[in-house]
Write a structure and sequence with these properties.
Distance between the termini: 102 Å
Number of helices: 8
Largest sheet: 10 strands, mixed
Shape: globular
Radius of gyration: 27 Å
Length: about 270
């Protein structure tokens, strides 16, 4: 009888030990999967110097540094999708990517996207023409007499975007707008000052372009926005928290100093 009990207890102990080993293995796999399988955060980007610059397939710039640091703090893998502007915004609206950077807030855009707090503020919009065009703008109403090159679906500043009297010619990008201006397809283009000045500083045609003295009083701010179809929409509070911390730590200022070149050419 004692021998039989011992055999039963022995088999029970072996079974318990096997179950314990399975439980420990499951726990180890669970822990390591959490450490190594971070979620992918898909962000659509389109060239917009000096916020997004593409050189030999590598993306750099103020917004790239920002979103890399944001993803590091969120604990997610950043996956960048370099696309033309219009394709990027359409994919974003359809929820095929999680987010976009370099976006200005407009009420119309809130139907498909949710904006985090801005990470770069006081963006000045300016008007550019070709030398000896004869264009002179002293007040907003003077804009009515010209067709103005403006990037399709891009936001500029409210008084411009909402004024039905202003005539615009849609362009695919700021580079496209500048090329058309150089070919005198129209006399004026509108662009973010920091962006167009940076582009002109790296252009062989900069001395042919003039930045007008007229400067709109309204400014804009740059945001990261989340697609309302993205699972990351629930992370908006943390995205705002980390963006605020990145600003308070002076990181955006350091990114700007690294990527913005001094504007010294004739377009000034």
């Amino acid at each position: 009888m004692i021998s039989t009990l011992n055999r039963i207890n022995g088999r029970h102990a072996v079974k318990m030990l096997a179950n314990l080993k399975k439980s420990m293995l499951f726990l180890i796999l669970f822990v390591f999967s959490g450490l190594t399988c971070a979620q992918d955060f898909h962000v659509a980007i389109a060239r917009w110097d000096p916020f997004i610059m593409i050189t030999k397939g590598k993306a750099t710039g103020i917004s790239i540094d920002y979103v890399r640091e944001l993803c590091r703090r969120l604990g997610v893998n950043l996956v960048l999708h370099e696309l033309p502007w219009l394709r990027a915004i359409r994919m974003f609206e359809r929820g095929e990517v999680d987010a976009m950077v370099n976006l200005y807030f407009t009420q119309a855009r809130t139907s498909t996207m949710t904006f985090a707090i801005p990470y770069y503020e006081n963006m000045n919009m300016r008007f550019y023409t070709y030398k000896k065009s004869g264009v002179r703008i002293k007040q907003h109403a003077d804009l009515y007499q010209y067709e103005i090159g403006a990037v399709e679906y891009a936001a500029n500043y409210p008084n411009f975007d909402l004024d039905a009297k202003i005539k615009t010619h849609a362009t695919a990008s700021d580079e496209h707008a500048l090329k058309m201006l150089l070919h005198h397809r129209f006399k004026l283009i509108i662009a973010a000052e920091i962006q167009m000045d940076h582009m002109l500083d790296n252009s062989d045609n900069s001395e042919q372009i003039e930045k007008l003295d007229y400067a709109p009083s309204q400014t804009s701010a740059v945001h990261i926005a989340l697609s309302k179809k993205s699972a990351f929409i629930k992370e908006l509070p943390r995205i705002n928290q980390y963006t605020r911390a990145i600003l308070e730590e002076g990181l955006i200022e350091s990114y700007a100093k690294k990527h913005i070149r001094k504007h010294t050419k004739a377009h000034k």
